[in-house]
Amino acid sequence: MSVRTSIVQLNCSTVESVDARVERVMTLLDDLSERSDFVLLPELWNTGAFDLASCKLHAQEIDGPLPAALAAKAREHRMWIHGGSFCERDGDSLFNTSVLFNASGDLVAKYRKVHVFTYAREQDTMTPGEEYVVVETPLGLTGLATCYDTRFPEMFRRMRDAGAQVFLIPSGWPTARIGQWNSLLPARAVENQAWVIAGNQVGTQGSHVLGGNSAIIDPLGVTRVFGDDGEEVLTVDIDPDLAAQWREEFPAHDDVVDYQVKQPDK
């Protein structure tokens, strides 16, 4: 049975207030309730991925008002919601935390971004997470990742080894490096024979223009839907069985070897 899955490719320009954007997204979720079973929001969408000062200002605990509002929408509409990520406060530490709610509004998984984006000094605000997360969803066994994580194939291989058949990737990826995003997403799908569902922001945050190009890519590496550089909703019917079927037909993972690198004698 297919799962109708939507990515909200959201305009996260700093000209819009945090409160206004949160209200607007809640309305978007209402609109999607009749046509989606599963929704993915972008990384740090309430503040903007590159506005770390705003992230810190609007940090909240895991049961704070933003996660609570997302949980309420999931429960109201009987819809799974991956709430993208937000700045989570836990004691004296802040984390770039993704939250996933089931159709009863329960928080079934949270993932603290492991690879904070050092190029943009994200580590000055956010503490890196310390574990990978895989959880059962209507899409199948699902691995969680965030933006910069996409550059680290070993993370996805570890989740694949744990049984993951689909990866959810909220992001705030800039136009300046969007070609790399467009190369990395199909690579993660093909090498792991897994669905990749990746949602990016658009809009402008200071000197940064966000690149869009959100995508859903199947386990054979076929792009099922691809966004442009404006705000939009992308929707695809996902077959949760496709990854297992393709892995059985083409069992490339069985041929993985783990040799040591030999250094030439000096």
CATH architecture descriptor: 4-Layer Sandwich
CATH homologous superfamily heading: Carbon-nitrogen hydrolase
Strand order of the largest sheet: 5-4-3-2-1-14
How large is the count of helical segments? 6
Q: How many domain units?
A: 1
Calculate Rg over CA atoms: 18 Å
The averaged pLDDT comes out at 97
Helix content: 10-25%
Give the termini distance in whole angstroms: 59 Å
DSSP E strands, number: 14
The share of residues in extended strands comes to 25-35%
Compact description:
Helices cover 25% and strands 29% of the residues. The protein is an alpha/beta fold and 266 residues long.
Give me the secondary-structure topology:
Blueprint: E1 3-9, H1 18-32, E2 38-40, H2 52-57, H3 65-77, E3 80-90, E4 93-101, E5 107-112, E6 133-137, E7 140-144, H4 153-161, E8 166-170, H5 178-192, E9 195-199, E10 202-205, E11 208-211, E12 215-217, E13 223-226, E14 232-238, H6 242-249
Parallel strand pairs: 1-2, 2-3, 7-8, 8-9
Antiparallel strand pairs: 1-14, 3-4, 4-5, 6-7, 9-12, 10-11, 12-13
Write structural notes for this entry.
The structure is a single chain. The protein has 266 residues and is an alpha/beta fold. It has a single domain, classed as Nitrilase/N-carbamoyl-D-aminoacid amidohydrolase (4-Layer Sandwich). 25% of the residues lie in helices and 29% in strands. The protein has six helices and 14 strands. The protein has helices at 18-32, 52-57, 65-77, 153-161, 178-192, 242-249, and strands spanning 3-9, 38-40, 80-90, 93-101, 107-112, 133-137, 140-144, 166-170, 195-199, 202-205, 208-211, 215-217, 223-226, 232-238. Strands 5-4-3-2-1-14 form a six-stranded mixed sheet. Helix 1 runs parallel beside helix 3. The mean pLDDT is 97.
